[in-house]
Amino acid sequence: MRTVTMVSVVMVGVLLLAGGAVLLPLLFDDSVTVAFSDKSNYETLIVAKETGMLDEAGIKPYIVTGGVRAAEAMLTGSADMAAMGDGPAVNTVAQNDNVKIVARFIGGEGMHRFIAFTDIESPKDLEGKKVGLQQGSSTHGAFLRWLHANDVNVTGPNSVKIVPMSPTEIPIAMEAGVNGERQIDAMAGSEPWAINTERRCGSAVHEIGNSSGQGSTFPITLLATQRIIDRNPDAVRTMIDVLVRSNQFILDNWDEAMEICYTRTGVASIADQDACSRLQFYDVGFNETDIQSLTMAAQVLVDFGRLSNIPDIANRTDLSFLPDGGG
Description:
Elements: H1 6-10, E1 16-17, E2 20-21, E3 32-37, H2 43-50, H3 53-57, E4 59-64, H4 67-75, E5 81-84, H5 86-95, E6 99-107, E7 113-117, E8 130-133, H6 138-149, E9 161-164, H7 170-176, E10 186-189, H8 193-201, E11 205-210, E12 220-225, H9 226-231, H10 233-252, H11 254-265, H12 270-277, E13 281-285, H13 288-303
Parallel strand pairs: 3-4, 3-5, 8-9, 8-10
Antiparallel strand pairs: 1-2, 5-12, 6-12, 6-13, 7-10, 7-11
Helix pairs in contact: 2-10, 2-11, 5-13, 7-8, 10-11, 11-12
């Protein structure tokens, strides 16, 4: 954890102004910190941490639970950079002029899965049912798009009832309903929350759908504060280089990488880690597909009142740190 001056401590009070989070100009020391989750979708950073790449680069990990929390860490000054999915990324850049998207390093169109009890056989059967998910997450947007594509009622008395939950609690809540009263009837989550639900609940549940076929690759992005971009651009450049090298390590040493990630992500076995990780591609860059995917995520947030308008994603990026400008 960083040390801060007394002046900095006083400034931590206000997180929201004019309806949007504001990056706090805290006076930290010269250490550089990146916030990310110890879960699937963040294998690149997990491997970078566990193999010593981050340490060698002089970048400190700040571990959180999900992209929403990573964004909060960056906005409150606990991190200079943060990794998150498309939903938190567009929400963050839409409401803050002091952060930029600098890279995409993982993606996968089917990375969000929807698990329900077996008596729920079709998407329409979810009407009137309770679905646990992390509110504001990339999964949240993917699930809403999936409901819309399947003509599922999301408004009115018989609509799907979203139950905001910490992702770590979702598999436990589903398991409680196997032989007792259901807290939730289904869950929506990326990994390992989906596969952990399947392992806990066994034949009582099944995958009712996933996020594939939506036209999005659900990019996992790296965001940086304007402060670190201006004051220490070499740190951002070094972070990008770490992502490139870590992805290559994963591709060249798949089995070893799965063993490393299995120890951190909370899956039940290395085989489960392998299954989760194979849903994704590992590539550092940023291109038109990423812009399209993030714009789709923003549209969902606008449709459901979480954003007032769709941000110009291209103008909320700084791709100068990427090899060849993004690829």
